[in-house]
Amino acid sequence: MKDYIELNTFLRINGLAQTGGQAKMLIRSGAVLVNGEPETRNKRKLHVGDKVAYNGKEYIVKKEVIK
């Protein structure tokens, strides 16, 4: 069992992007923040408790989404 989820997958699971391509574009644009910092790495590993922010909303990584 993994102890992380990749940022692009997290965005798709939470409905912020419909496809991997859309997720990649959002991330590369610098519009996605991870723990308060802009993140441009598509496959950034997120762990339980990390905070992802986009478009004024914040999402917290929970262990249920890590499979």
Explain this structure to me?
The chain is of the alpha+beta class and 67 residues long. The protein has one domain: RNA-binding S4 domain (Structural Genomics Hypothetical 15.5 Kd Protein In mrcA-pckA Intergenic Region, Chain A, Roll), CATH 3.10.290. Helix content is 24%, strand content 24%. The protein contains two helices and six strands, in the order E-H-H-E-E-E-E-E. It has helices at 7-13, 20-28, and strands at residues 5-6, 33-34, 37-38, 45-46, 51-54, 57-60. The strands form two sheets. Strands 3-2-5-6 form a four-stranded antiparallel sheet, with no helix packed on it. It has a two-stranded antiparallel ribbon with strand order 1-4. The model has no long low-confidence stretch (mean pLDDT 95).
Task: Outline the fold blueprint.
Elements: E1 5-6, H1 7-13, H2 20-28, E2 33-34, E3 37-38, E4 45-46, E5 51-54, E6 57-60
Antiparallel strand pairs: 1-4, 2-3, 2-5, 5-6
Helix pairs in contact: 1-2
Could you give a quick summary of the protein structure above?
The chain has helices at about 5-15, 20-30; strands at about 5, 35, 35-40, 45, 50-55, 55-60. By secondary structure, the chain is an alpha+beta fold.
What is Rg? 11 Å
- What is the count of structural domains? 1
Helix content: 10-25%
What's the CATH H-level superfamily name?
Answer: RNA-binding S4 domain
Name the features.
67 residues, alpha+beta, Structural Genomics Hypothetical 15.5 Kd Protein In mrcA-pckA Intergenic Region, Chain A, 4-stranded antiparallel beta sheet, two-stranded antiparallel sheet, 6 strands
